[in-house]
Amino acid sequence: MSTWSNIDLQDAMSPLMEQLIFFHDHTFMILIMITVMVGYIMISLTQNKLINRYLLEGQMIELIWTILPALTLIFIALPSLKLLYLMDEINDPSITIKSIGHQWFWSYEYSDFKNLEFDSYMKSYVTSQFRLLDVDNRVILPFLTQIRMLTCSLDVIHSWTIPSLGVKVDSLPGRLNQAAFILSRPGLIFGQCSEICGSNHSFMPISIESISMMNFIKWLKLY
Length: 223
Hints:
Elements: H1 15-46, H2 59-88, E1 95-102, E2 105-110, E3 116-120, E4 139-142, E5 146-153, E6 158-162, E7 167-171, E8 177-182, E9 187-193, E10 205-211, H3 213-221
Parallel strand pairs: 1-5, 4-10
Antiparallel strand pairs: 1-2, 2-3, 5-8, 6-7, 6-9, 9-10
Pfam families: COX2, COX2_TM
Subcellular location: Mitochondrion inner membrane
Organism: Aphrophora alni (European alder spittlebug)
């Protein structure tokens, strides 16, 4: 979860988000190397008085500064395309959950087990909870389990987003979108609607509680 002093990415709670963080670091290092190299060249050009009055063309240097950017783009594109396909991959999900966006709350359906449905509203703030993030009914999910999330909307466009899972799916009226993820460990995970959907857009958070499969089955038996 992001805090006031956190300027970095959130800690990964899924293998997909771990790969996204690795890709971010990989691309950032390439950008730093390019920035340092270009900065060094610009400073060295301004700090010397060397001239070449007979320089009309430089085919070799033009070849170099054409090939190097092409290689750089390849080093960025290959892991990017791999991640793009991984994000759309859904491998035989064990649990399917449906999330329905409303103005301004979420509804959830666990239709795999029984007719389990509930609404999830933001809690009124008290000092013992997370402001604007805690809800009255959390989404309970087991960790180390392949999960498929189906989402749609009953009114306007919403977006079901959990940054620490690397998941962002638009909830559209009259259309089902899906995403797949695996929770890496137990804990609380927070997200929010990421599509402006009206005056209370900021007040429809998402809260997931990741627990063991045994506790998940016990929770199901309570309904």
